[in-house]
């Protein structure tokens, strides 16, 4: 259950994530930054954590931050047209897609899934959700993350390769979406390792903020 700005809760059903949805991040990871069909992976609902703490996982020595727009759906369906996709959105927030980069590299080299790298315990610290009628829908807005006061990531929502309506439409072509689904929409360039004691402060214009301290697991 995610807290909601102003009170109440948002029951989470599934958590979908979009890979390489900013060209500059795709390039920094050694991939083609040009537009190509989107791909998706999943985290678990229990990976979402809203108490401002991120316990460093014992199985990795290279955990990196990825700030992302978090989208909560109030309704879903199959094969949702792009033109009506935003009508499915219930609210917005800010999340960190924490990634065990060393484990991800090992999985890629062996052609295996990324579950160890992306869906470990507490892998998605996040903010509360703000209802769309309070924050509105925004196709652009600054997205940034500072670590210990130093700006690490900075971009704009309008730099997404696939816009949110396109993401929802593409995702619904593969899965039947429903109320309670969460979508993390990708990260701009600047991802880097964190260590216990680091403080991560992220903000997305009009969508909210997140303030997380890395602790020893």
Automatic annotation (TrEMBL):
<protein>
    <submittedName>
        <fullName>Fumarylacetoacetate hydrolase family protein</fullName>
    </submittedName>
</protein>
<dbReference type="InterPro" id="IPR036663">
    <property type="entry name" value="Fumarylacetoacetase_C_sf"/>
</dbReference>
<keyword id="KW-0378">Hydrolase</keyword>
<dbReference type="GO" id="GO:0018773">
    <property type="term" value="F:acetylpyruvate hydrolase activity"/>
</dbReference>
<dbReference type="Pfam" id="PF01557">
    <property type="entry name" value="FAA_hydrolase"/>
</dbReference>
<feature type="domain" description="Fumarylacetoacetase-like C-terminal">
    <location>
        <begin position="15"/>
        <end position="214"/>
    </location>
</feature>
<dbReference type="InterPro" id="IPR011234">
    <property type="entry name" value="Fumarylacetoacetase-like_C"/>
</dbReference>
<keyword id="KW-0479">Metal-binding</keyword>
<dbReference type="GO" id="GO:0046872">
    <property type="term" value="F:metal ion binding"/>
</dbReference>
């Amino acid at each position: 259950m995610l807290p909601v700005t102003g009170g109440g809760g948002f029951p989470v059903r599934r958590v979908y994530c979009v890979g390489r949805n900013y060209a500059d991040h795709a390039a920094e990871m050694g991939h083609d930054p040009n537009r190509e069909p989107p791909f998706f992976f999943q985290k678990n609902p229990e990976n979402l954590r809203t108490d401002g703490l991120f316990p460093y996982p014992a199985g990795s020595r290279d955990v990196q931050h990825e700030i992302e727009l978090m989208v909560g759906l109030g309704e879903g369906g199959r094969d949702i047209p792009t033109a009506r996709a935003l009508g499915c959105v219930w609210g917005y927030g800010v999340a960190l897609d924490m990634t065990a980069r060393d484990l991800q590299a090992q999985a890629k080299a062996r052609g295996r899934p990324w579950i160890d790298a992306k869906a470990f315990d507490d892998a998605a610290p996040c903010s509360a959700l703000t209802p769309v009628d309070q924050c509105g829908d925004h196709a652009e807005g600054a997205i940034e993350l500072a670590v210990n006061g130093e700006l690490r990531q900075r971009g704009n929502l309008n730099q997404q390769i696939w816009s949110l309506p396109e993401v929802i439409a593409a995702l619904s072509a593969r899965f039947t979406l429903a109320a309670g689904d969460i979508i993390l929409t990708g990260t701009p360039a600047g991802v880097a390792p964190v260590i216990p004691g680091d403080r991560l402060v992220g903000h997305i214009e009009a969508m909210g903020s997140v303030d997380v301290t890395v602790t020893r697991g």
